[in-house]
């Protein structure tokens, strides 16, 4: 795994905007929650998809059609100018690992990370 990731940080305001209009930096975004499924089911950023970090490295090696059949969403192309991926977890650790796997899989300019994660985002939800 790479020691440093090219993932660009996004703020709370940016992730809130991405979660409602699915765009950032002119790109269609996939919001990837890399926590465990039970954590995701308990609450997540709106419009996020779930793929836990422990499966991500191997999932990235799957053919696109098998990936979609297994995980029910498509990851954008690694070099896409029109699509991107933003990763998050509970508080940054697993998201950093996921960003490393994505970087190793050649995601570069279209890779973003929301490090404060669900811990911060969940405080903004009206109860």
Tell me what portion of residues adopts beta-strand conformation. 15-25%
Number of helices: 6
Q: What is the typical, i.e. mean, pLDDT?
A: 90
Largest sheet: 6 strands, mixed
Top-tier CATH class: Alpha Beta
Structural class: alpha/beta
Topology pattern, helix = H, strand = E: EHEEHEHHEHEH
Q: How is the CATH topology named?
A: Oxidized Rhodanese, domain 1
Shape: globular
| Known CATH architecture | 3-Layer(aba) Sandwich
- Total domain count: 1
Rg from alpha-carbon coordinates: 13 Å
Name the quaternary structure. Answer: single chain
Helix proportion of residues, in percent? 25-40%
Number of E-type strands: 6
CATH homologous superfamily, by name?
Answer: Rhodanese-like domain
């Amino acid at each position: 795994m790479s020691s440093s990731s090219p993932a660009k940080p996004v703020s709370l305001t940016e992730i809130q905007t991405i979660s409602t209009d699915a765009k950032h930096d002119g790109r269609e975004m996939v919001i990837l929650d890399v926590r465990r499924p039970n954590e995701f089911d308990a609450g997540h950023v709106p419009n996020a998809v779930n793929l836990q970090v422990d499966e991500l490295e191997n999932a990235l090696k799957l053919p696109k059609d098998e990936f979609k059949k297994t995980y029910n969403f498509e990851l954008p192309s690694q070099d896409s100018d029109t699509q991107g991926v933003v990763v998050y977890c509970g508080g940054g650790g697993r998201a950093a690992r996921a960003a490393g796997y994505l970087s190793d899989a050649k995601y570069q300019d279209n890779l973003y990370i929301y490090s404060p994660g669900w811990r911060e985002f969940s405080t903004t939800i009206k109860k």
